[in-house]
């Protein structure tokens, strides 16, 4: 009977990783979204077993919370999984089996989080500095993010006037929201619920 419980949990948690996998298969340019998307996946996973108030920190501080946990009845296992457990607990399975299941779920979340923190390129300089191209977060961008690319790839910026760059950057940060026409042209929908803006179209 516990097979039904484990399969139900698998069905509940799989969409979290499927959505992220589909995003990384996009053909449109999105290097400026990669780092944020990686942290978003980690945050979503940690939100399944860590108290929400502990996740209200910066991305860099987030990885330090990965070892913390909540009590058993707060673990996310999916609504259907919880209903199956309640039904089976009435006359089919023992409390010991339920405890083993919850321990396995907690270990799964911890292992998944640790793996992502270890394997993801969270500290990759290009991914970090490219985030200034995220139009929706333009007010949070700093000009130092652009200067990184100027220093790293000087051959592409030999004719660039840095004073003009500063003025253009200010214009970018203070630019108004997109008109419906531009928003429609710039929005890419390759998967339902995973829309994003193409900066080359906005420019």
Give the overall pLDDT as a whole number. Answer: 83
User: Low-confidence parts lasting 5 or more residues at pLDDT below 50?
Assistant: none
> How many distinct helices?
10
Helical percent range?
55-70%
Question: What multimeric state do the chains show?
Answer: single chain
What is the 3D form?
elongated
Please trace the helix and strand order, writing H or E for each element. HHHHHHHHHEEH
Distance between the termini: 57 Å
Computed Rg? 22 Å
Strand order of the largest sheet: 1-2
Going by helix content, strand content and strand pairing, the class is mainly alpha
Report the sheet-strand fraction. Answer: under 5%
Count of distinct strands:
2
- Largest sheet data: 2 strands, antiparallel
Describe what you observe in this structure.
This protein is mainly alpha-helical. The chain is 58% helix and 2% strand. It has ten helices and two strands. Strands 1-2 form a two-stranded antiparallel ribbon. Strand 1 (187-188) and strand 2 form a beta hairpin.
In short:
With 203 residues, the chain is mainly α. The protein contains ten helices and two strands, in the order H-H-H-H-H-H-H-H-H-E-E-H.
What's the structural blueprint in terms of helices and strands?
Elements: H1 2-23, H2 31-46, H3 59-62, H4 79-91, H5 95-119, H6 125-129, H7 143-152, H8 162-173, H9 180-186, E1 187-188, E2 196-197, H10 199-202
Antiparallel strand pairs: 1-2
Give the tags.
203 residues, two-stranded antiparallel sheet, mainly alpha
